[in-house]
Inverse folding.
């Protein structure tokens, strides 16, 4: 790659512009409910959600925030009124979930729920202890029809985690009412802040309506009552800082051990500068780029042993290590997947499962090849073979959407529906059933055929307007911020951070065992 070329400079400029847009949207999540509600929260002597997380984490350790743009493009606040991510506490990687009480009192809306459930899924798959930093008014009642029934899974996940001997810890800083009371109720360890935590199934107004009983917050669900009388609180904290100290103490005494193999203690940084990744992806995704340029800036020592380099060249496969962890990599080269690429991928995935090696999928694909020649050559069964291998592979998968990720190629490269442990996107990524022009063109062809069958003249002006509208819609719905708002990825990342993000993800994955599949489904030959 020529980093001094005009093409590189143009790609870099386009990527930096996308990153600036991304930073603006991230700022909305970080701002919480805005100055008014942040000031009110501070006036009450309380820490913000991200400040609580920062105090909880080991000093100078990283925090891999997940789904920061949840709810983007909806009527709800960007971020979904909750912060989730993976951080190290007393040397233990934990899933951390913190309500943001400056956004509608931390009340849970449909986006909050999806974000919380995704965090629980990641914690379960990767055997991560969970720490909930609780201050929430419960469900956002106007949206109860969307969150009440599926929201029960939140508490089911806590009990399942405990049964799987994966600890759950609740630090309660404020309200945890109604259904939210079951969050500490179903956690293994509970810390409550004196005179601040309020945990009850029904607050004083509801109790009055239901039973006629007069009561106050403290006697009904205060921290001291739960520590001395009900026994729900295991620890009574004097203030927020003390609650965080107690939470760190609990983690310190968990006797926690990773079950996966440890990384090699000595490894080299890439020989090529990761900053160059800003200029890899062309502004026009129809222009191909060499994924080896990405791999050389992500893996240890830029050392990559390519597998079957002369066969199925539109898909690059091979072995490397990343932050000391062995990995297999599948990366799209020219965009289209042919039969040869599908068969090559299938064999490579089987080999990775034989050697218990995690897989990284780097997406830039327009999908599987279509056309008479390719249909007759068996592209359906060969594509199905690759998807079968991805579906039944048991080693951990990591996916990064660098460019296009269209059609069934998104499935074959382990898209969201195929259960990658983590899936991240670059700001340049796009994902849809097909490209906007192709989709609009297909609709146009179908409409023309229908008009001809009816013996009617085709409305060319209407066709032009329809195509423009469809292209605009698909373009908007395939953009990374839209997809991230829907929680179809775990976050949009700066390409320069790819190595770090994948390294943190691999480290989290190795809290659990890493084992390959013992068998696959029937491969159509």
């Amino acid at each position: 790659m020529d980093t001094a070329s005009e093409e590189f400079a143009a790609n870099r400029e386009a990527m930096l512009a996308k990153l600036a847009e991304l930073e603006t949207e991230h700022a909305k999540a970080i701002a919480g409910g805005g100055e008014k509600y942040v000031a009110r929260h501070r006036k009450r002597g309380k820490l913000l959600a991200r400040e609580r997380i920062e105090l909880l984490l080991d000093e100078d350790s990283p925090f891999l925030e997940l789904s920061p743009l949840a709810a983007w493009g909806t009527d709800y606040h960007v971020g979904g009124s909750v912060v989730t991510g993976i951080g190290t506490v007393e040397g233990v990687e934990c899933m951390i979930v913190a309500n943001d009480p400056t956004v509608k009192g931390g009340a849970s809306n449909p986006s909050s729920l999806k974000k919380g459930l995704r965090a629980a899924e990641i914690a379960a798959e990767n055997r991560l202890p969970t720490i909930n930093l609780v201050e929430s008014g419960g469900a956002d009642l106007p949206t109860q029809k969307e969150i009440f029934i599926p929201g029960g899974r939140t508490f089911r996940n806590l009990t399942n985690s405990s049964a799987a001997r994966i600890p759950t810890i609740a630090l309660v800083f404020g309200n945890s009412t109604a259904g939210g009371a079951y969050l500490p109720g179903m956690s293994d360890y509970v810390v409550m802040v004196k005179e601040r935590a309020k945990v009850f199934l029904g607050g004083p107004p509801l109790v009055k309506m239901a039973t006629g009983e007069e009561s106050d917050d403290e006697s009904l669900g205060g921290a001291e009552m739960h520590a001395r009388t009900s026994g729900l609180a295991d620890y009574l904290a004097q203030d927020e800082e003390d609650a965080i100290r107690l939470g760190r103490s609990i983690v310190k005494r968990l006797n926690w051990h990773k079950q996966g193999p440890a990384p090699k203690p000595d490894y080299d940084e890439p020989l090529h500068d990761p900053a160059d990744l800003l200029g890899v992806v062309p502004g026009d995704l129809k222009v191909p780029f060499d994924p080896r340029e990405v791999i050389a800036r992500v893996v240890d020592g830029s050392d990559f042993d390519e597998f079957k380099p002369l066969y199925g060249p539109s898909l690059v496969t091979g072995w490397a290590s990343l932050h000391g962890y062995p990995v297999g990599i599948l990366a799209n080269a020219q965009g289209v997947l042919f039969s040869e690429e599908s068969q090559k991928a299938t064999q490579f995935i089987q080999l990775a499962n034989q050697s218990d090696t995690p897989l990284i999928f780097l997406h830039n694909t327009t999908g599987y090849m279509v056309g008479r020649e390719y249909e007759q050559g068996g592209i359906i069964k060969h594509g199905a073979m690759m998807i079968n291998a991805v579906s039944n592979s048991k080693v951990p998968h990591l996916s990064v959407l660098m460019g296009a990720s269209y059609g069934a190629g998104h499935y074959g490269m382990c898209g969201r529906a195929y259960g990658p442990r983590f899936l991240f996107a670059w700001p340049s990524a796009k994902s849809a059933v097909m490209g906007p022009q192709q989709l609009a063109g297909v609709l146009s062809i179908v409409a023309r055929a229908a008009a001809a069958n009816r013996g009617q003249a085709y409305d060319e002006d209407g066709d032009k307007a329809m195509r423009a509208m469809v292209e605009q819609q698909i373009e908007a719905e395939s953009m990374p911020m839209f997809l991230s708002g829907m929680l179809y990825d775990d976050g949009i990342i700066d390409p320069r951070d790819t190595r770090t993000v994948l390294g943190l993800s691999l480290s989290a994955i190795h809290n659990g065992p890493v084992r390959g599949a013992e068998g696959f489904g029937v491969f159509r030959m």
Summary: The mean pLDDT is 93. The radius of gyration is 25 Å.
